[in-house]
Description:
single chain, about 650 residues, 23-stranded mixed sheet, five-stranded parallel sheet, globular, disordered N terminus, binds 2-acetamido-2-deoxy-beta-D-glucopyranose, cell membrane, kinase activity
Amino acid sequence: MGSQVWYFLAIFTLITTGESRQVSSETCHPNDLKGLTRFKAAIRLDDSGRLGKWIGHDCCKWEGISCSNTTGRVIQINLPGFFTSSDDSPVQTSMKGYLSNSITLLSSLEVIDLSGLAGLTGNIPPSIGFRLPKLKKLSLFGNKLEGRLPESIGKLSNLEVMYLHENSFSGSLPESLGNLKCLRFLDLHSNRYTGLIPDSIANLTHLKTLNFQNNLLSQHIPDNIGDLQALKELDLSNNSLIGRVPSSITKLKAISVIYLNNNKLEGEIPQPFSSEQMPALRFLRLHDNLLMGRIPDSLGYLTSLERVSLANNKLDGSIPTSLGNLRSLTELYVNGNQLSGQIPSSLGQLSQLLILNISNNMIQEPLPQEMASLINLQTLDLSFNRLNLSSIPDWLLKLPSLSQIRLASCRIQGELTEYLQSTSSSLQVMDFSDNNLTGNIPALIGSLTELYLLNLGGNSLVGEIPSTITNLVNLGVIDLHANKLEGSVHWVFEIQTRFGGGSLTYIDLSDNRFSTGIEQIGKGMQQEIQDLNLSHNFLNGKIPTSIGTLGSMQILDLSYNNIESELPPSLGNATSLERLKLQKNYLTGNIPNEFLKLRKLEELNLSNNMLIGEIPFGKPLIDFPKSSYLQNTGLCGKPLSPCRA
Length: 645
Ligand SMILES: *[C@@H]1O[C@H](CO)[C@@H](O)[C@H](O)[C@H]1NC(C)=O
Ligand SMILES: *[C@@H]1O[C@H](CO)[C@@H](O)[C@H](O)[C@H]1NC(C)=O
Ligand SMILES: *[C@@H]1O[C@H](CO)[C@@H](O)[C@H](O)[C@H]1NC(C)=O
Ligand SMILES: *[C@@H]1O[C@H](CO)[C@@H](O)[C@H](O)[C@H]1NC(C)=O
Ligand SMILES: *[C@@H]1O[C@H](CO)[C@@H](O)[C@H](O)[C@H]1NC(C)=O
Ligand SMILES: *[C@@H]1O[C@H](CO)[C@@H](O)[C@H](O)[C@H]1NC(C)=O
Ligand SMILES: *[C@@H]1O[C@H](CO)[C@@H](O)[C@H](O)[C@H]1NC(C)=O
Ligand SMILES: *[C@@H]1O[C@H](CO)[C@@H](O)[C@H](O)[C@H]1NC(C)=O
Ligand SMILES: *[C@@H]1O[C@H](CO)[C@@H](O)[C@H](O)[C@H]1NC(C)=O
């Protein structure tokens, strides 16, 4: 009863005093009330329960709504999906429903924050620019919104923040974007915008962040991008941009981050003229493009650089000596290019360097001894160059912070024992594959207890594996293929990976002279094995029932051995199997019906064994070619000829 009286009174006040009243009234402006009521009606579900509390007519008191204390009009809708609750713990909530056009009735709006709600669908209202001229912040990221960015957006001359990232927006970007003179943050990443980046973008002289990564933008980067004198972060990565990197980019005075990686950019890397250009640049990613030419000497001017990736381009020439000036550098990736010459000794000055990847180039020896001063270096990859190292320099193995070293295909000779003596016990990754290491794997290997990856494949190692190898409780990947190792493989199934310290998923012991130990498969605590290759050895013995416990196994290759065994029905329990190769053994008996459970199997080879009987009828077994089953003692049935009754 009473509230009805107040309601009439309020309407009356509104009619008589209009918008300019000094109020805290009992009803908000009718357009605001109508707009919000319709907004609420289009939301089907609100996990946070905030909209459920939107009752009565004083929408200024509703949660998430703020009104101007002078005009009484709604100026903010603040309903983000991530908010801090009263007890200070962050809450995440979702809202499902349609973003109604009716929000444009709230003509005094300055802030719209409906971000991170996950379930908001619909478009940005096409009339937004005409209806909401006071808008300063438009934040709709993390929803399921779609459609174009309306042309009228350019009318929002007060807009400072536009966050539309992580939605399904599409279409081309309107030229009118360039009219948003006050814009400071523009983030459209992870949508499906296509076409070109409008040249007008260069008008946004207050812009600090420009993030268009993960879209489908093609065409050139605007030549005048260098006009963005306030820009700190430029991220155009993971699009399909073509053409050159505009040379004007070097004029970006405030720039700190440039990510142009994963595009189709070509031509040379722009050259800064002096140390006054891009004085604050810290992060530069140009990797995975089609850039060519040399790495410019003048990169050495950019002494603020901390992380640089030029990987996977077509860069040639040598690594410039000037890079030694980049004393703040922590990460340098130049892998996957056509760089030649030697590593300049100046790189030894990069005392902050943590990661250096030079792999997959045409670099030659010798390695400069100055690199011994890289006391912080944790990761070094020199694999697949034209290095003929003959031996691994002692100083290299003694780098005090080294945890990952990859020297694949560096023509290293000599006994593994010799090198292990210098190796730090904190090593996590050791890749010495495709060299000519000789001798045994020594017991000392067991002291590398932090090792996650051990790759000694493609060497000339001989002898049995020392029992100390089971100390490698952090091992996830072991590759010893193509050596002359012998004895048993049981140890690999006895490595008790440390609880919580990862687990062994990849095992390749193929192409050696191992003969025993397959009875241990599946007997250890290694249910995480995904890839097990023991092919091309002299393994004999029986395939144990316990093999069926390897429920994560995707690849099993025991081919080309001397295994005299029946096929255990339990193998049908390894339902993750995609490739099963058992050809060229002495397998006997039938193919168990349980193999019909291997529904993920894409490749099977049981040929060249002594199997008999009918191939179990059904998918996937009948779909493999005949050659999967040929050269057995007596297999029949689809895809081979029918069995005789
Ligand atoms: C109106 O609100 C602004 C901030 O939004 C505040 O600074 C100002 O003091 C308020 N004025 C009145 C009259 O409450
Ligand atoms: C905005 O950018 C366009 C396209 O580059 C240009 O033609 C126009 O003159 C610019 N407008 C202003 C006001 O700078
Ligand atoms: C690049 O974009 C594609 C398509 O939008 C997406 O599937 C992929 O995950 C993105 N890659 C990265 C590295 O973000
Ligand atoms: C170095 O780059 C290559 C690709 O060229 C990559 O395979 C390798 O994992 C990288 N090494 C490190 C340690 O990141
Ligand atoms: C590699 O270096 C060794 C020793 O310095 C030398 O004998 C050998 O000829 C070199 N091999 C090549 C291919 O350059
Ligand atoms: C590997 O080194 C051994 C001993 O130095 C040598 O006999 C052999 O020819 C080398 N093999 C290759 C492939 O270089
Ligand atoms: C297993 O290793 C052999 C020899 O190294 C190789 O030829 C074969 O392709 C590998 N099997 C699988 C399934 O990758
Ligand atoms: C397959 O696994 C199930 C459930 O663990 C078990 O009961 C069954 O005996 C196994 N089958 C074979 C053939 O080992
Ligand atoms: C199976 O292995 C045999 C012998 O290596 C080979 O000839 C045949 O092509 C293989 N078949 C399939 C389907 O892989």
